[in-house]
Amino acid sequence: MRLKRANACAGCGDLTGLVDMRFSVGNLSETQWWTVRWIGFGLFLISFVVPARVDELQFFAGSIVFVQAPVMAINFFGEKDYVLAAVTLAAWLANLSVAVPRRKWVAASAILAVWVAYGCFFEILRGFIPFYPWGIGITFVQVANLLRRESNGAASVGRIEGC
Fold first, then answer.
1. Does 80 share its domain with 104?
2. At what angle do helices 82-93 and 61-78 cross, to 10 degrees?
């Protein structure tokens, strides 16, 4: 954890006024936030219409997987493969996180869910074209949410309360 010394107040010890800098490097302005968010959202939408593979021009493969993913999760639960069921369901729920900016833990969870699913299903997803714009799109949207400035212009970082 990197800490930066902020304005110290009178009578407070050395730890007063420290600011957690994990997400403060490169905070996005409102315009930058919207730009990164729309790029991510565009990639996310493209993933629903691109073909499945280069050698199989089956368009809308991402849309088919979007509908099938919850069914696959239920099947994994039925087969008592709870890890794959949870990973599949979490990755599918990451789709919902794109629509509305959420809390920072939701953004981080969505990014993690997408890439953990890729690791779990690597043999299936390797070469599956819709996954890449989908995963990168969700990641862009959520990174934009993580790096967004607060509405008052201040960086959204946690502060240590001491005085």
1. yes
2. 150
Q: What's the pTM value of the predicted model, to 2 decimals?
A: 0.72
Whether 140 and 161 map to the same domain: the answer is no
pLDDT, position 155? 47
Same domain, 67 and 114: yes
Task: Tell me the C-alpha distance between 146 and 23, whole Å.
Answer: 7
Say yes or no: 117 and 159 in one domain: no
| 114, 136 Cβ separation under 8 angstroms | no
Q: With contact defined as beta carbons under 8 Å apart, do 61 and 128 qualify?
A: yes
Closest C-alpha to 69, from 119, 131, 127: 131
Helix (H, G, I), strand (E, B) or coil at 19: strand
User: Could you report the per-residue pLDDT of 13-69, keeping only the tens digit for each?
Assistant: 444 444 444 444 457 788 888 899 999 999 999 999 999 988 877 899 999 999 999
Burial of 156 (0-12, 13-18, 19+ CB in 10 A): middle
Average pLDDT for the chain: 80
User: Judging by beta carbons within 10 Å of its beta carbon (0-12, 13-18, 19+), is residue 108 exposed, middle or buried?
Assistant: middle
Backbone angles phi, psi at 20, to 5 degrees: -75, 125
